[in-house]
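Translate structure to sequence.
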């Protein structure tokens, strides 16, 4: 048997074929949508504490919608929460994920007025 004969001739039914964002057919659910989320926390926090807050928020979002939301970090690694995951797996993935925190300069003074 030649190797070419073992390959499927029609790959349209292959579940492993990657589709582009938003092109999922309606029969498998609504089309996927990519959104950009930005967090802004108070300036009194350092970058490490800001990352911890973002991790907590992301974890709550992922746990609220198991298997429905994929979070992609700066390196392009995907994190999905599933109900069958070990309790510490998703938090550990988020702690090790690549995310960037930038200090935002505001126009208005954030110091309390007397």
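Result:
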């Amino acid at each position: 048997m030649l190797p070419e004969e073992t390959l499927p001739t029609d790959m349209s039914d292959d579940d492993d074929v990657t589709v582009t964002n938003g092109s999922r057919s309606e029969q498998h659910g609504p089309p996927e949508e990519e959104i950009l989320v930005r967090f802004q926390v108070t300036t009194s926090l350092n970058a490490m504490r800001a990352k911890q807050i973002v991790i907590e928020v992301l974890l709550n979002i992922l746990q609220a919608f198991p298997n429905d939301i994929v979070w992609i970090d700066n390196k392009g690694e995907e994190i999905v929460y599933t109900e069958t995951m070990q309790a510490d797996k998703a938090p550990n993935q988020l702690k090790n994920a690549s995310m960037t925190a930038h200090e935002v300069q505001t126009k208005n003074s954030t110091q309390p007025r007397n």
